[in-house]
């Protein structure tokens, strides 16, 4: 990606296997930022498989400045039957505190937008906690809050219960 005039030495690239330990650090920092550090079960060996294994479920781009990774975006492809086209769901977005306010986040989002357009994807979406200052940046770039769509999650024991299995049976 071309450098941004606001941050001339920052560039974005797809993550490499060698970036996985740094990405795992940033995921933990994001969990800590949200006060959920103890809930984060991500380790770099797990992340390596999910990004670079035989059936990757996740993709990543990193922002580098002066040879150091200062930001990341973790994402995966979605699909819209109404658009009849894929899209991008942003799972995690993180910029180191010392790199914030320098355009790093915008550079990351711009690269994802370019990727989406170049690949014929019709959407770039994700969820943002209400206290995140990123919300105003998303709105300023045309982001619409999808008030009529609510996010629900079934996980843990509830997910097992839905299968009809007992939690002890699933562990065997």
TrEMBL record:
Acyltransferase in keyword set: yes
InterPro entries, sorted: Acyl_CoA_acyltransferase (IPR016181), Diverse_Substrate_AcTransf (IPR051016), GNAT_dom (IPR000182)
Domain N-acetyltransferase: residue ranges: 10-165
A Pfam family reported for this protein in Swiss-Prot or TrEMBL: Acetyltransf_1
Keyword annotations: Acyltransferase, Transferase
Highest taxon listed in the record's lineage: Bacteria
Family statement drawn from the similarity comment of this UniProt entry: Belongs to the acetyltransferase family.
Name the UniProt record assigns to this protein: GNAT family N-acetyltransferase
Organism: Aeromicrobium tamlense
